[in-house]
Amino acid sequence: MRTIAKLFGRSPFIPIQTHMDKIKQCVDLINPLTDAFLIHDMAKVEQVAEEISRLEHAADETKHDIQNALRKGMFLAVDRSKLLDIIAIQDGLAGKTENFATLLTIKALNCPDSIKDTFKSFLAKNLEAVAGVVEIVKRLDELLESSFGGAEAQQVAQMVHKVAVLEHEADVIQRSLLKSIFAHEKDFSHGEFYLWLRIFKQAGELANLSETLANKIRSTLELK
Amino acid sequence: MNTFAIIQTLSVFDWFTGMQPTSQILVIIALAFGFYMAWNIGANDVANAMGTSVGSGALTLKKAIIVAAIFEFAGAYFVGSSVSNTIRKGIFDPALINEFYGEDGYLILAIGMIASLLAAGVWLQLASYFGWPVSTTHSIVGAVVGFGCVALGPTAINWGITDFSGVTAIASSWIISPVLAAAVSYLLFRIILKLIFFQPNPVKAAKKVAPFLVFITMFVMIAVTSFKGLKAFWKDAAWLENIQYFSNHKLGPTHPVALLITMAFAVITGVIGTVITSFMIRKIEDDPVESTQHFESVYVKRSVDKARKHLRRISSNTTGTNSSEASDLLMQLETLSSNIEKRSDPELTKSALQKVERIFVYLQILSACFVAFSHGANDVANAIGPLSAAVQTLHEGAIIAKSHVPEWALILGGVGIVIGLATWGWRVMETIGRRITELTPTRGFTAEFAAAITILIASLAGMPISTTHTLVGAVLGVGLARGIGAINLNTIRDIFASWIITIPAGACLAILFFYALKICFI
């Protein structure tokens, strides 16, 4: 009996979800952060950025915990390297969020009104993509229960597709956003202009990573 | 059969007083150590069968103990004798002892068997104290081999390397049985996945498949019990003598008529079980959404998404009328898409999977009974084989060439296992059963069913196998079929290590106890 109990390792799927929960808390702070940034409340920006940094660190600890549990000698329902990739990408989401927050703390930037809305919708699209992949990760334990196949897997594949669509939409918005900001080129100093570009790029990474993560999870499925 | 048993009980007193004083003491020691070994088996191993059912909440601890006791005892009593014969005679030929020791031969055999029982029992208790994954079977076989080596010399042991018999056959079955169980559980789980989990409506599919699985389990259990366990019932079938035909023909268990009755009985029991299960699972309601529609929407939705994506591309990459037309189409598509979305509810599969597991709770209990039964059949021999050899030779005052395993020994073994379970096994079950909740009812059923079938086949073939390691193999099989989150392969390494240690350890302890007893009694 003891032998059989010892046979079971700690399943990494629930800890991965816990990790994702923490990442989500981190990403969720982007909205208050940007709102404060757009009204030039730099003290608030600073404070939220610090909070993001703290949450990112907390998520890191969960990450190390899972990586330790996934040591060699564990036979898993999903390829070990794929699971490690999934965790690394989740971690990347928090990393990008932190980078984004740091960029916003550098300098209070003017945002022309014509760009403001596009920028907000761009961020919203990115966050939507993240939310989409968060939902997918939430399904991991059910996927395990159905052995990564069947209707459950079909649904997850569908959700993955949704994230891909969101990523594409974010790309489209980013294009128009870049066009707008180049139209306002002369309103900014070189530094400010460069900072805006960096900010857009970091924000866009959220959707990109979400799509990568979604695809990684899709690759674990047993689809017909 | 009953009258036979009563006569036996009445004559126990004569049977005992008719022996030499030394033999009397040895008989008592043999019974004590045989019981000790059986107790150890019950304390260590029985939790294997029921632990997962307790862990998944399918059975309360109390119910699990009662059910385990019944099925362990039934397995031990009805099917337990073939393996006992292998342990008594498969490793070396007891008749050889007469050639070596002459008149005292019977005492040597008895002392050796007693020493083996004690050695295996002590080793098991040590191992369970330290939590090593040793097998009761390996311990006793190691002990008997050790005794044979010192009493007769290594050449007398039936190593069976050339003709694949004796020790080689026993040892190879220790590897073959987990592998076989793994293969069976892998296949069974793949079948369950295909027939249930990968179906559009898993609950409906589970309701269809479950009664069939119940039938197979019940049929096999009953068929084996009556085929193997009711030999005497067929042979001394007084109730058949009224029929003209049977007064002239001896009826054994393999006689076509007996086989037919056995099969009919097994089928009827299977059908009853099936009907009961069908009624029980009828309580669990179907999924409200009809699957085909649900499934269709998945594909349709994907196509709609694709169309939307392409239309977006058109509208963003074109200008003028083309762009506005594409936007119009896009808007129409959005309405269509949201209509389809309403019809697919992502939360549906979650509750469906839980319902499937609830159906399998019944099957898991059944398969747990099956494991308990098979375990009783295989492992009772570890205590009873040496015990009956010792007691019989002591009683006869000589080594008898042809002997059978007496019924009282099987009963003693069964009772010993049950008491071991009741005094210590439940604690193991309680503490560890909770830790292996990963074995959900579907997984638990698959692993247990595969293990039970493998153990039962081995028991019928007279092979003493490690039931724990067979169950480990079965769990691995489910893992290979992607049924379990994480399996710790280091346990396999530990098992191999314990496998290598247990046999010499059992042998050494047996040699030690053999010499000690020899000094005391001869």
Summary of the model, kept short:
Chain A has 9 helices and 1 strand; from the N terminus they run H-H-H-H-E-H-H-H-H-H.
How would you describe this protein?
The complex is a heterodimer of chains A (224) and B (522). Chain A is 81% helix and 1% strand. Chain A is built from nine helices and one strand; from the N terminus they run H-H-H-H-E-H-H-H-H-H. Chain A has helices spanning 2-7, 13-28, 30-38, 42-69, 80-106, 113-138, 140-145, 150-183, 190-218, and one strand at residues 74-76. With 522 residues, chain B is mostly helical. Chain B has a domain at 18-201 and 349-521. Helix content of chain B is 80%, strand content 1%. Chain B has helices at 2-10, 12-17, 21-45, 47-55, 61-79, 81-90, 95-101, 105-130, 136-152, 166-197, 202-229, 231-235, 244-248, 256-282, 291-317, 320-343, 348-396, 407-433, 441-460, 467-480, 490-521; one strand at residues 486-488. In chain B, helix 4 packs antiparallel against helix 5.
Structural features:
heterodimer; A: 224 residues; mainly alpha; Methane Monooxygenase Hydroxylase, Chain G, domain 1; 81% helix; B: 522 residues; 21 helices; phosphate transport (chain B); transport (chain B); membrane (chain B)
